Amino acid sequence: MKLSSDSVSHSVYNLSGTESAAERHTLSVLVENEPGVLARVVGMFSGRGYNIESLTVAEVDHLDKRSRITVVTSGTPQVIEQIKAQLGRIVSVHAVNDLTVEGNAVSRELGLFKVAGKGEARIEALRLAEIFRANVVDSTLDSFVFEISGAPTKLDAFADLMRPLGLVEMARTGVAGLKRGAK
Q: Cβ neighbours of residue 129 under 8 Å, at least 6 residues apart?
């Protein structure tokens, strides 16, 4: 049996027949700092076929034993709502905030970029690093390691410009974010 293109849906989550564009969202999840919590959060994503584009986690309150998991994911608005609801149902989760839609938020990513080169390429790499406010954290006669922080798009742009100059490798932390304001 041959199916027409009209009968095949592009997403298992799109039941209405109308396509919604996927959106990237940064979710901040406050959890108990105990064994297995990260595995449950990641398992929720993988078990339902959601993709994690970036994941960071660290203890944020030693006395109350709380950690913050920052997850960047994408999906239709309906999928994002499902993700937030399912995260909220996990027993060890205290709060789920969508930094993308809840107003002003600050988010940053840290990257380390190793660039090898000599002569003009080396000079150009240093010039571009200055423009991007990247710091040289290691230097040899034939390479640099630059440290840069900012929006993921800033790090992407820096990497794109460094590739022809000798980008050897990079390491990125993933996004960390907080809501702005006193609360």
A: 135, 136, 144, 146, 148
Question: How many whole angstroms separate alpha carbon 154 and alpha carbon 109?
Answer: 9
Rounded to whole angstroms, the Cα distance separating 115 from 163 reads 8
The residue type at 51: N
**In Å, how far are 50, 71, 75, 76, 81 from 11, measured between CA atoms?**
12, 21, 10, 10, 16
Dihedral (Cα; 176, 79, 76, 58), 10-degree rounding:
10
Whether the model clears a pTM of 0.85, i.e. scores above it, the answer is no
Running DSSP on this structure, what letter comes out for residue 86? Answer: H
Going from the C-alpha of 163 to that of each of 15, 77, 99, 122, 124, the distances in angstroms are 42, 35, 31, 12, 12
pLDDT one digit per residue (tens) for the chain, 183 residues: 333 334 333 333 444 444 578 899 999 999 999 999 999 999 999 999 999 999 999 999 999 999 999 999 999 999 999 999 999 999 999 999 999 998 788 999 999 999 999 999 999 999 999 999 999 999 999 999 999 999 999 999 999 999 999 999 999 999 999 888 887
Alpha-carbon distance of 70 to 145, in angstroms, equals: 26
Q: List the domains of the chain with CATH numbers.
A: 20-98 (3.30.70.260), 105-179 (3.30.70.1150)
